[in-house]
Design goal:
It is a single chain. This protein has about 210 residues and is of the alpha+beta class. It is built from nine helices and four strands. Helices cover about 50% and strands about 10% of the residues. α1 links the parallel β1 and β2. It is globular. The two termini are about 25 Å apart. Bound molecules: glutathione. The site of glutathione has 15 residues, from α1, α3 and α5.
Length: about 210
């Protein structure tokens, strides 16, 4: 398997965690987003959206981190990244999608660049935008998780799931932007539990071959 990735990409970080949790070896192919390598013809031939990650294996070429993770889940079911039970799976997917659909896309590099380079928004306003969408999303997640008996050591129970796979990279983004996380004690506690697992630790941005 080959994973096209960028060390700071939180969407690629999700897939790195999933591959590690499942014990799947892969070749890391760096795509330097700040140099614009995602827009080169060689890469858009693999990923028409010009986004990382892309996973390539003997079955095909796959984009979108959550689709890739569900593909891995179906091909390599152990250990499961979704809990047993329809309701539990819906809960885990809802947490994952709240991050992947409602927080992360608004703070993506190309969105921030459009704000500054095309719309002429200043750096302070851009930073305020970034913080606003992260805080709004994380506040809702904290409220959702804090008193829910389904929340355990991890977002759902006692084993990491797709929800944790999305949460940890999003918190890493927030930390990089120096956003205070004191208002999210449940999320930070779950992040610490994940950090103790080698699969999460090895997927961290600073552990990647293209880390700067
Ligand atoms: N929904 C996509 C999002 C992918 C995405 O936004 N990737 C970012 C890095 S985290 C990217 O490649 N950005 C390139 C750019 O903004 O030009 C997924 O989950 O895979």
């Amino acid at each position: 398997m080959k994973l096209y990735s960028y060390f700071r990409s939180s969407a690629a970080y999700r897939v790195r965690i999933a591959l590690n949790l499942k014990g799947l070896a892969y070749d890391y192919v760096p795509v330097h987003l700040r140099k614009g390598e995602q827009r080169a013809d060689a890469y858009t031939a693999l990923n028409a959206q010009a986004l990382v990650p892309t996973l390539v294996d003997e079955q095909g070429t796959f984009g979108q981190s959550l689709a890739i993770i569900e593909y891995l889940e179906e091909r390599f079911p152990q250990p499961p990244l979704l809990p047993k039970g329809t309701e539990a799976r819906a809960r885990v997917r809802a947490i994952a999608l709240a991050i992947a659909c409602d927080i992360h896309p608004l703070d993506n590099t190309r969105v921030l660049q459009y704000l500054t380079r095309t719309l002429g928004v200043g750096e302070d306003a851009k930073d305020a935008w970034y913080r606003h969408w992260i805080d709004l999303g994380l506040s809702a997640l904290e409220r959702q998780l804090v008193d829910d008996p389904a929340t355990g050591e991890f977002c759902h129970g006692t084993a990491p799931t797709l929800a944790d796979i999305c949460l940890v990279p999003q918190l890493a983004n927030a930390r990089r932007a120096a956003i205070p996380l004191d208002a999210y004690p449940t999320l930070v506690r779950i992040e610490s539990a994940c950090a103790r697992l080698p699969a999460f630790a090895a997927a961290a941005p600073d552990k990647q071959p293209d880390a700067e």
